[in-house]
Amino acid sequence: MKVRDVPQQPGMITDGRREICYAVDDDGNYVLTGSAGWEPKNIANDQAWEIIRNQVHETVRKVRAGKLSPLAFYMVSNQMTPALLARYVGLNRWRVQRHLKPVVFKKLKPEILHRYADVFDVSVERLGNIPEDIETMPSFTEIP
């Protein structure tokens, strides 16, 4: 693609930022150039964020219904799986899955809670609760 043909269709997710991509200049050399976005990519990103939003809202519903521990909210809102979270906290995946149960989560030792809190960069107290209005959380105010 020529430099002059690099898409410049900003999307909601890029929020005015530009991404770097390779294009061919007038001399036939590959060069780095900025792009404001590309409509198909913008549509795909919007759809992906909608799926993530729905997953988070469904998880919040389950936490409030007592089916999942607050840990599930932080895991899902950070786009993690139990296996990935297990690697971050240095535990077995099956243990993390158990900690997603409210009864088990309430009995966790402070040292384990601190490991989770460190991963999510929240206090142990905050880890034990989910925000009343998840839309005001910093990670969600950036989502269109």
Helices and strands in order:
Blueprint: E1 19-24, E2 30-35, H1 39-64, H2 70-77, H3 82-89, H4 93-99, H5 102-106, H6 110-120, H7 124-127, H8 138-141
Antiparallel strand pairs: 1-2
Helix pairs in contact: 1-2, 3-4
Give a nutshell description of this structure.
This protein has 144 residues and is mainly α.
What does this structure look like?
The chain is mainly α and 144 residues long. The protein folds into 2 domains: 3-37, no CATH class; 67-141, lambda repressor-like DNA-binding domains (434 Repressor (Amino-terminal Domain)). The chain is built from 8 helices and 2 strands. The chain has a two-stranded antiparallel sheet with strand order 1-2. Helix 1 runs antiparallel to helix 2 and helix 3 crosses helix 4. The radius of gyration is 20 Å and the shape is elongated.
Order of SSEs, N→C? EEHHHHHHHH
Which regions are unreliable across 5 or more consecutive residues at pLDDT < 50? 140-144
Describe the strand arrangement of the main beta sheet, using strand numbers. 1-2
* Fraction of helical residues: 40-55%
Instruction: Please state the average pLDDT score.
Output: 86
Structural class designation: mainly alpha
**Biggest sheet architecture:** 2 strands, antiparallel
CATH class of the largest domain: Mainly Alpha
Shape: elongated
The total tally of domains equals 2
The tally of helices reads: 8
CATH superfamily of the largest domain: lambda repressor-like DNA-binding domains
Distance between the termini: 29 Å
CATH-derived architecture of the largest domain: Orthogonal Bundle
Using the CA coordinates, give the radius of gyration: 20 Å
Find the count of extended strands (DSSP E, 2+ residues).
2
The CATH topology annotation of the largest domain reads as 434 Repressor (Amino-terminal Domain)
